[in-house]
Design a protein that fits this description.
Blueprint (H helix, E strand, L loop, with lengths): L11 H4 L11 E5 L7 H13 L21 H13 L3 H4 L6 H11 L2 E6 L8 H14 L6 E4 L10 E4 L2 H9 L4 E4 L11 E2 L2 H14 L21
Parallel strand pairs: 1-2, 1-4, 2-3, 4-5, 5-6
This protein binds magnesium ion.
């Protein structure tokens, strides 16, 4: 006896949505200056030395163009160059609180950390900038699988980006990318997903990866090995 096929309910497309996890790593694009490294604090110390003024006269609450410090574009360029080439600022810049620990936990969970830095936007000092950046990443104990030294093209195929620069965040949004804006005084006018610190960033990344169908292995609180593993 022939068996009739089941009636087509028209719901097949819904029922056949795959539940298998993604078969590639979730890639997180992480900016350095203003996200992992405290550029403002480091640059302030260099500028105070070079100009012979108190650091307190250079407010940390500053605009992107450092107008509160009274720097013209040319003066900024001159001081930034001295900071990188003479003061070797990229080698000793303070690490932003929680960055290394959060990135270790995310890396342990299976997130592919792709460091993206725009430090080559000037056409001098590339060897120093690259060497000092890599040395700094080791000393700051920031884990990464690969690193992109960029000019001004922000898109390098990450699932999610973390950046603080208004123009980078806007460019990433305009090219259809998703970005966590790392909170800073100079990016208050930018709208979108905003993290106040690395603890918030970490939670946003985990939620985003889970929503996109990536299976991550998060560690139990207090059980993670974190950035201290290099001392073990
Ligand atoms: Mg930045």
């Amino acid at each position: 006896m022939a068996v009739s096929p089941p009636a087509d309910t028209g719901r097949r497309a819904v029922l056949e949505v795959p539940s298998v996890p993604m078969d590639r790593p979730y890639v997180l694009g992480v900016d350095l200056d203003g996200v992992c490294g405290d550029y403002t604090a480091a640059f302030r110390s260099v500028v105070a030395t070079e100009l012979g003024v108190e650091e307190s006269s250079l407010p940390l609450d500053r605009s992107w163009d450092f107008s509160e410090w009274g720097l013209s574009a040319d003066e900024f360029e001159r001081l930034h160059r001295l900071a990188v080439s003479e003061h070797r600022m990229l080698r000793w810049m303070p690490v932003i609180a929680g960055a290394a620990e959060s990135l270790w936990r995310l890396s342990d969970a299976g997130v592919w950390i792709r460091v993206i830095t725009h430090r080559l936007y000037v056409n001098w000092g590339h060897a120093t900038a690259i060497a000092d950046t890599v040395e700094w990443l080791d000393r700051a104990r920031i884990p990464y699988r690969d690193i992109c030294f960029m000019g001004d093209k922000p898109e390098v195929g990450a699932d999610l980006y973390i950046d603080d620069a208004p123009h980078n965040v806007t460019a990433l949004h305009e090219s259809g990318n998703r970005v966590i804006l790392f909170d800073a005084p100079y990016n208050q006018a930018v709208t979108g997903l905003r993290a106040q610190d690395w603890a918030e960033c970490e939670q946003m990344v985990l939620r985003d990866a889970a929503t996109a169908g990536f299976e991550l292995q998060t560690s139990l609180p207090g059980m993670e090995r974190g950035s201290g593993r290099l001392e073990d």
